[in-house]
């Protein structure tokens, strides 16, 4: 039995995650990526949490999501608010969680047709 609204709208969804990878629609990715309902982007220049800067967050303004879920790897980490101030000003919600939680949360929000982006670091 489905526990969330299913609109029938096709969208990208995470199908697996593990040490050093995530799978989207069955395809395996071993590098940081950004997933939205209609795109899988590998052009996000972030490589790891420790090197994030304001430009890595500003990347999401053009995508115009309601919320960006940052999967920070195996452990939840929080960026300094100065780094994502541009998203706050653009009224884009920002959530930090470990990567498995970000994948699960993205799938739920995307299934509800929410305008969500998942930024995944491994």
Description:
This protein has 122 residues and is α/β, with parallel strands linked by helices. Helix content is 19%, strand content 30%. It contains 3 helices and 8 strands; from the N terminus they run E-E-E-E-E-H-E-H-E-H-E. The chain has helices at 54-58, 85-89, 99-111; strands at 14-18, 21-24, 27-29, 33-36, 39-41, 67-72, 93-97, 116-121.
Tell me the Rg in angstroms.
14 Å
Percentage of residues assigned to helices: 10-25%
Total beta-strand segments: 8
Number of helices: 3
Biggest sheet: strands, sense, closure? 5 strands, mixed
Mean pLDDT over the residues: 93
- Secondary-structure content class: alpha/beta
The helix/strand order is EEEEEHEHEHE
Which stretches are poorly predicted, pLDDT < 50 over at least 5 residues?
A: 1-5
Principal-axis shape equals: globular
Q: Going across the major beta sheet, what is the strand order? A: 5-4-8-6-7
Strand coverage percent: 25-35%
- How far the N terminus sits from the C terminus, by CA atoms, comes to 31 Å
SSE diagram, text form:
Layout (H helix, E strand, L loop, with lengths): L13 E5 L2 E4 L2 E3 L3 E4 L2 E3 L12 H5 L8 E6 L12 H5 L3 E5 L1 H13 L4 E6 L1
Parallel strand pairs: 6-7, 6-8
Antiparallel strand pairs: 1-2, 2-3, 4-5, 4-8
Entry summary:
The chain is of the alpha/beta class and 122 residues long.
Features:
single chain; 122 residues; alpha/beta; 5-stranded mixed beta sheet; 3-stranded antiparallel beta sheet; 19% helix; disordered N terminus
